[in-house]
Design a protein that fits this description.
With about 110 residues, the protein is an all-beta fold. It contains no helices and 10 strands. It has a 6-stranded mixed beta sheet, with no helix packed on it. It starts with a strand and ends with a strand.
């Protein structure tokens, strides 16, 4: 059974940092492009960052220069380092494949507030 389990969220002040983790029990993980997504209250889920199987990355304009996606194929883990967080970064963060081919996990809540 495929599971996507996100962790690492929390309450952080504007300008602060968090590192999110995603454990992805996906067959063939190393050849799958992975992504982080977020859904703010009352809004649709949006793409935040992606990393291909060959470590190519892409970021939403709103997070470029502040967020970094990475992966560990041996552990089937995906990470999102978030720096210089802004209040508009408040959302539930999810991971999934780049084609969103699996059921969404519970996500991890990030609240950016003073």
């Amino acid at each position: 059974q495929v599971q996507l389990v996100e962790s690492g969220g929390g309450l952080v002040q504007p300008g602060g940092s968090l590192r999110l983790s995603c454990a992805a029990s996906i067959t063939g993980f190393s050849i799958r492009g992975m992504g982080w997504y977020r859904q703010a209250p009352g809004k649709q889920r949006d793409l935040v960052a992606t990393m291909t199987s060959t470590y190519g990355t892409n970021y939403a304009d709103s997070v470029k220069g502040r967020f970094t996606i990475s992966r560990n194929n041996a552990r089937k883990m995906v990470y999102l380092q978030m720096n210089s967080l802004k209040p508009e970064g408040t959302a539930v963060y999810y991971c999934n494949t780049m084609d969103q081919g699996y059921a969404w996990g519970q996500g991890t809540q990030v609240i950016v507030s003073s």
